[in-house]
Amino acid sequence: MSVTGDKITAFIRKEARANIRNNIILNSLFTYLGNRGMSPTVLEGGGVATDTVSTCIFMSLIMTLFTSMAVKKALASGELLAHDLALPENSPLRMLPIKPWLLGLCMGPMMAVAFMPWVVGFCHLIGLHTLSFWQVLAVKAFYTFCITIIVIKWVVLRLLNYYANQREA
After folding, report:
1. What's the gap between Cα 43 and its chain centre?
2. What is the pLDDT of residues 21-62, one digit of tens each?
3. HSE (CB half, 13 Å, CA atoms) of 138?
4. CA-to-CA dists, residue 152 to 147, 148, 155, angstroms
5. Residues paired with 41 in a beta bridge
6. Considering the chain, what percentage of its residues have pLDDT values greater than 70?
7. Strands 130-131, 41-42: parallel, antiparallel or unpaired by DSSP?
8. Residue 108 has pLDDT above 50, yes or no
9. pTM recorded for the entire structure
């Protein structure tokens, strides 16, 4: 991997670590505030499935907005260089919007479509139809971790590719 590729990878990891920590803490807090009685939560029908969808959408939007600011700051300071990044012409990332708020609004439903069936299917597979408060937190921490890594990487690569193409034009 090139020096620039190493810098991009290091930047993605740094952003992902910070976002994972923040998301797990904030999502746990929001779960507690939404269920102060710590009562069991049903899997479907306004329960874990709905919570997963709303978390995916909201979390992806917020992460995209903050990561976009971090990418712009890193480009301005020279920590990242966009001109060495080239995504393949047929990369699906090239089809995503560039405006951070719109990119986040696109990423959220994509993550919800990918993760909500997985969460519900996994819980059904192991025989859980109602989850305790602590089970909800554990499931949420796991999918939050996965979504954060995907969203951060895609946002950084999409933005760097956009700025690289802007320099060429």
Report:
1. 22
2. 998 888 888 888 887 778 878 877 778 888 889 888 999 999
3. 7
4. 8, 6, 5
5. 131
6. 94
7. antiparallel
8. yes
9. 0.85
Ramachandran sector of residue 71 (left: φ over 0; alpha: ψ -120 to 50; beta: rest): alpha
Residue 87: phi, psi to the nearest 5?
A: -85, 150
**Residue 142, burial from CB neighbour count under 10 angstroms (0-12, 13-18, 19+):** middle
Instruction: State the pLDDT at residue 1.
Output: 43
Q: Which residues contact 16 (CB under 8 A, 6 or more apart)?
A: 148, 149, 152, 153
Distance CA 56, CA 127 (A): 24
Could you tell me which residues come within 8 angstroms of residue 2 by beta carbon, excluding any fewer than 6 positions away?
A: 84
Residue 110 has pLDDT above 60, yes or no: yes
Cross-strand bridge partners of residue 130:
42
Question: Tokens 């990878």 belong to which residue?
Answer: 9
The Cα 165–Cα 169 span in angstroms is: 6
Task: Tell me which amino acid residue 39 is.
Answer: S
Cα torsion through 61, 67, 69, 71, rounded to 10: -140
Using the structure block, give the residue that is written with the tokens 């997963």: 52
Contact 19, 148 (CB under 8 A): yes
